[in-house]
Amino acid sequence: MQRLILDAGVVDRPRTRWLVKYDGVVIGFSSWGGDELNNHRMFYLIINEQFQPAQRLIDNFIEKITSCLPSLKLTIIILCTAMGNDLTRKTAIDRGFRKITGFNSNPSQHNLIKVSYKGYITHSTWDEFRTNITKAVDLSLPDRMPTYDEFVYTGAVLSSKSVRGVVKLPLFDMETLFSPTVFLCAGRKAVIIPIKKPYVERLLAEPIHQLSLLPSNEALLHVEKAYFKSARNSKLFKRSDLLLFYVSGKNGGQEIIGHGRVTSSCIMDVASAILKLKRQGALEEKELSDIADNNGNVHAITFDNFVLFDKPVSYEYLKRNHMISGANLVTAERITSKTLKNIIDEGCLYE
Asked: DSSP secondary-structure letter at 247?
């Protein structure tokens, strides 16, 4: 296993290798790649979980491996970790990994497997996606893509030949299982939220024009990030909603650059926001206090699975096609599933 972890790959298919130090001590190593010609990827992640940054490192590496997968292709990720890396395994399971059963020619009880699809699944692509899933693993999906309401009230019904009964998964759990996929089911809506340019680089790790020489914010290391706003219009946001990030201001480009997925939405006081979520967000204590209401509360939205559009969707495009209201995106705005699909079609260059 050690030889495979350190393998550099070949010239046309090099491997990505990361060595992590904390206070001069090596606390982690990860590597992947070089097997792009296969339908599976080996992902090695060894972390000394006794050190304080362990959770952030695990989050960051799991996000990195899923974000570098090929687009519009079903890929099986096999996570190889060390005995005793229980935090790594728990985090991976929370992100959609499962116990490996008979796939690897050299199976290990420490390995986990995940079926991933990087792209959007719609009603028209559901049949192909469902067929590819059945071919890859022992899992059957519904014949028809569930609508948003069906996902919420019934869940997608999944079955397996080797396990009796069925499992019903809501939209959030389905996307986690096959992440970083996005299910654009009928009736799924989204919220456009304004964000200022300086906070984009501190929160989303996607600078608009050029890299900053300033130290990176810790939020960039987290899979789940926090966006703070005033407590107004908090009822617009629901778990599993897509958040479309609109970079506001004359110097911000005035364009939607990508989206994430809401994992939680709640009102909390500034002290609680600092204690629980400050490391995942881009605002300092004074900035949180400035947007707090008279009761000292702010609206905290956590999100994951940020996807950067291939090309930004401009304010002019949104306005010309009547996709936004007369409020001109000064504050959060909920949009229909049709508008969401149109924005994604404009921002993504499908292969």
From this structure: E
The Cα 89–Cα 111 span in angstroms is 9
Q: Work out the pLDDT band at 77, boundaries 50, 70, 90.
A: very high
Where does a domain end: 99, 117, 135?
Answer: 117
Choose among 178, 183, 189, 74: nearest CA to 124.
Answer: 183
Q: 173 is in which domain, residue-wise?
A: 120-183
Residues 248-279 have pLDDT tens digits of 987 778 999 999 999 999 999 999 988 888 67
Pair 337, 201 in one domain? yes
Domain identity same for 313 and 220: yes
CA–CA distance, 58 with 68 (Å, rounded to integer):
16
Q: Are residues 194 and 343 in the same domain?
A: yes
271: buried, middle or exposed (CB in 10 Å: 19+, 13-18, 0-12)?
exposed
Q: What is the CATH number of the domain that holds 237?
A: 2.30.130.30
Residue 65 to residues 44, 69, 111, 131, 216, Cα–Cα distance (Å): 10, 7, 16, 24, 20
Q: How far is it, in rounded angstroms, from Cα 13 to Cα 29?
A: 20
Query: 156, 183, 210: which is the final residue of a domain?
Result: 183
The structural domain count of the chain equals 3
SS3 call for 121:
strand
Identify whether the C-beta of residue 244 lies closer than 8 Å to the C-beta of residue 255.
no
pLDDT > 50? residue 206: no
In b/e form, how buried is each residue of 316-337, taking b as 16+ CB within 10 angstroms?
A: ebbeeeebbeeeebeebbbbeb
pLDDT tens by residue, 139-195: 999 999 999 999 999 999 999 888 888 999 999 999 999 999 999 999 998 999 999
In 210-285, the DSSP E strands lie at: 225-229, 242-248, 255-269
**Mean pLDDT along residues 202-225:** 52
What's 32's domain CATH number? 3.40.630.30
8 Å CB contact between 269 and 223:
no
